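Kindly go through the entry underneath: sequence plus fold tokens. Please state briefly how this chain folds according to its tokens.
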Amino acid sequence: MDAGVAAIAAGAVGVVGATLGGLAAIVGAKIGAEKNAAAVLQQVQRQGRAEHAQWVRNQRATAYGQFLKAWDEYTLIRGKFHIERPPTYENWRMVQEVSGHLHTAAFLVRIAGPESVTVVTDQALIDLTAMALPDDVQAEFDDIHARFRETDDAQLQGRLVRIAEEILYKGSWDRAIDVLAVRQRFVQAATEALGHL
């Protein structure tokens, strides 16, 4: 073999080797880049889920705190209404206003969830706003209310209003429930929900 042909052959083998080496480097870089991109994507997804879970936790904590604050405000104003003798219309309006805050706060808890807390919240709302009534007042109210629903009689409606006013004065929220037990159930459900995100 002539030296020129050998040089050309060696040069060709060198070019082919360099080309194959370059292709291998490109393929290796592509595989490495794909793996790196997949790892970055997984990290971004995990971070997104973690940030979303933290956002949900914050929304829930805020809603739960607002409910407890409204609960305290409602209990305070309601107590003021029942202590004052005779209760004033102004205090009754305040009870209605804070009752609205309590119901709004309960609605925010329903939005924030989870269901385990919304169930306890709904029951707490029912328990907090329920009144223990004297049996005779409750029986009269139930009787007149049933008749009113059948007839729509204005006199019965007027009597219902007067009974409702009596209920405000004779009824007692404090005898209706064990507030501490209801509050403990809410706090426990809220704590568990915040801890499980």
User: Anything to note?
Assistant: Residues 23 and 29 are 10 Å apart (CA to CA). The chain has a mean pLDDT of 84. The longest helix spans residues 3-83. DSSP finds six helices and no strands in the chain.
